[in-house]
Amino acid sequence: MARLIKTEKEVEGRYTEQWVVVEEDEAIDQWPQGPGTVVGRPAPRQDGHARARGQAIYTADLALPGMLHAAVLRSPFARARVTKLDLSRALEAPGVVGAVRPDDCHVLSLEPPFHGAPVAAVAADSESGARAALDLIDVEWEELEPLLDPEEAVKRESLLEDPRRYERGDLDAGLAQADVVVEAEYRTQTVLHNSLETHQSVCRWEGDTLEVYISTQYIWGVRDSIAGKLDLPPDRVRVVCNFMGGGFGAKNSPGDYTYIAIALAGQTGAPVRCALTRREENLASGNRNSTIQRLRAGVRSDGTLVALEGEYLNAIGWEGFSGPTYGPMEMLYACENVRTLTYGAKLNLPPNAAFRAPGFVEGTFGLECVLDELAARLELDPLELRRRNHADHDLADGRPFSSKNLLECYRRAEPHWARREEVRASSNGPVRRGTGLASQIWYGGGGPPSYAWIRVGSDGRVTVVTAMQDIGTGTRTAMAQIAAEELGLPLDRVRVELGDSARGPYASISAGSSTTPSMGPAVRAAAADAARQILEIAAQRFDLEQRVLSLKDGNVVSANGGSWPLEEVTGLLEDAQILGKGARGPNPTGMRVLTFGIQVADVSVDVETGEVRVDRIAAIHDVGRVINPLGAQSQVEGGIIQGVGHTLTEERLIDPASGTVLTQTLDAYKLPTIADVPEIVVELLDIPDEHLTNLGSKGLGEPPIVPTAAAIVNAIRDATGADVRSLPVGREEMLRALAEAREREKRAPAPA
Amino acid sequence: MELGNGSVALAGGTDLVPLLRDRIVEAETLVDIRRIVPRGVQGTTIGAGTTLAELEVDPEIPQALREACSLAASPQLRSMGTIGGNLLQATRCWYWRLKFPCFLHGGDRCHARQGITREHAIFGNERCASAHPSDPAAALLALGTTLRTDRRELPLEELYRLPTEDDRNVTALEPGELILELEVPRPEASTYLKAMDRTKFTFALVGVGAARFPDGVRLALAGVAPIPWRLDSPDDLERATPLPGTAFKVELARPLIRRALEAVG
What we know:
- Chain A has about 750 residues and is of the alpha+beta class.
- Chain A is built from 19 helices and 27 strands.
- Chain A folds into 4 domains: about 5-55 and about 445-585, Aldehyde Oxidoreductase, domain 4 (2-Layer Sandwich), CATH 3.30.365; about 60-145 and about 195-245 and about 250-285, Aldehyde Oxidoreductase, domain 3 (Alpha-Beta Complex), CATH 3.90.1170; about 155-190 and about 290-400, Aldehyde Oxidoreductase, domain 4; about 400-440 and about 590-750, Aldehyde Oxidoreductase, domain 4 (2-Layer Sandwich), CATH 3.30.365.
- In chain A, helix 14 links the parallel strand 19 and strand 20.
- The N and C termini of chain A lie far apart (about 75 Å).
- In chain B, helix 3 (about 65-70) runs antiparallel to helix 7.
- Classes of the chains: A alpha+beta (about 750), B alpha+beta (about 260).
């Protein structure tokens, strides 16, 4: 019987209460720890060949009959007022079929508040025709003074939300107890997602239904947002995303381009594609906002953290959200006295968007660098300092963790950490080598609602049906593995149909490291439902008790040695099908579900030229049960590579006078190349969380990028004695930090 | 076909095509010069149509030029880009590329000087703070290269000029004039060192070309001035006029110059 209960749901640190219908989820025990027949064993992506051969159809590949192309007139100014906007000449241009202005579409504005804000758009029968028509729009701008400086914004109280204040214990008392206090200011830069597939959608009216083909992380969220905005019943909006070229957090909502395509499709009666160019992508599709972090930490000589204080300034942009930069400081260590204050500055800059562990990447950088500064002052091993401050419950509210194996991660880090003597000794002339580490904390428990169906055909082949999306992480393959394990089938007999809100049940967002822990249990429950039906049928067919039957290697097997191919049972039904359905159960009541880990980085620094190379990163993470070790390794490698870019080379630059985004192309915005990628050693604990669902799996999308910057910068300090304070660690920052360290050395020579 | 008057010469196209796409260069006609301009190496003479990929592996080519070629761009771009085109490539200054009405575009001021300048000039930057992006140009300048065009011979140094009030060009080529060949003297030893933001595939923050000849060592820098920059001696570095955002380039150039000098003996 269906039971209605309330459970707590978390997405990227934001908790909500959620009604959930529970069926038989509790009846399904977790599989024993360790690899099963399919789950826990490396599986190549099921769609790998299709992707490599160019056969996978991404939103960018869609060409619907009669499809028009949109081009968007965007503000060249950080703040302006449009004093004249005449589309008539653009509408007369060859091939142009339609045009929209702010009266026609709510995302367009006559008072653009940031460089790249959309003002008008045209639709033409070719992309080049649409772009050419933009030049024919008669527009006049009155340029206004932009607000660009986040500290100035705080002074003027230009904030996106009220300042957030948090305090536990007594900070001043904690500081009074401290034997060593470190104060430091750390800064992180604005970085851009730069997914391979730019933000885009194709929209078409089919009768009374709006079809939206979109590169998205959240089919159902896009559906609900559009339905709400257009006042349509949600089921009249169909959202499709079969294959996707990356999102990293920036593709959780419809975006201005989708509403522009919808408006133009409505006006012209034709399907309309609106795809951002790479330049638009780097202007106005979201970013990880820059931060200023003023930190203070006090520690007793025995290494006990007695005070942590952080003032965080998130330079958000015109819209977006103030991310949990404070999160690591409040959550990572067992410190009784913590105070944080967080501002979210509203500026005439492009809006931020979630970017792989938003807030925690930035906050971990500051906090974990300060920890190493404390360790240096105490002359205490940085790994030991972290061990001594291990939190065995949530300090904020006393809740237990559903599972936490961070100490085991630390233990597994020891051999990598022990290499540091050898790494340092390999320094050669001006090239100094060193090792650093940093801890990781992040969410990743997922939650309901999430549903899946299983279809077992008479041929004994299985289809998983759920309207989730695979954003490139390989969840399609992971879901097939879970179904195959439960149904005792080889992996190649299971396929997954996803990506279409009209063809499958509701599925959760692919963000917040939640896809596997949200969807996996639903898929397993559906497979268990189908397996139960198969065994019931087999029991009747072979006149055996159901309890002696099980599914193994594609067969129905009985305890007394009988074995029948699955298709012999399902074949009885001819074209009838066995349908299983499953839902994600609730999260464990009163527990904090989090992911943990540690990374150890080896670096080389040329102390004359400031060149930094990351030689090796060992990543040890605790994310519960691992479904696909091959896919998981790939996720960790991707996170670390993105982290290396964040640490060393990537930075969106703004002209301080005009607010113009200067880094619009990939020669100026420097993503790492394969030559910048270090050796990456991945170790996942693979210990199921016994309290979390029928799988015990947590998410892995975000944890690997969280500690990378701090581990690298701590390794730089180990190698050179230089305190890097701001990201990225370009030559100027590295040379500045080295010069500062030399000055310090001169003033107070180190003891021999 | 006459060059100039709306027609533009196209060889590798690795810089020209993006400039056309951004409408920084306007052309009515593109003239394919790949069959007109010599390609290949004969003794000390290099055809201007020789690709960077061909030069970086040619043992007859002085080491500085080979290294400069191999440190430039990506293998794909080096397989298309020619050495003649490389000498003429435009600055990466973001203000210029984004078409700010700057001095180099004919405007009255340099927007970079009050803006973000980490990739900009430390020499010759009074009117325009852009940096010349070519690695091979600095190597060739250090090597004392002479050019032969369809009209004249000129030392590479005279190809380049700082933009002035009257003439905002950074080269002295006449409209329609084509570089045909490069005459590259053989040094006793030479090298090219490059500091950049990534390990590969990015323009120089500072590049240093050094070549030793019987009468002394010649030095030239990339990425430090609107044109490739000759240094008469390492001490010339102290005459740099960095902007607040480019002061680090002086610090960066110092060890590179020392290492280059050590390398050529």
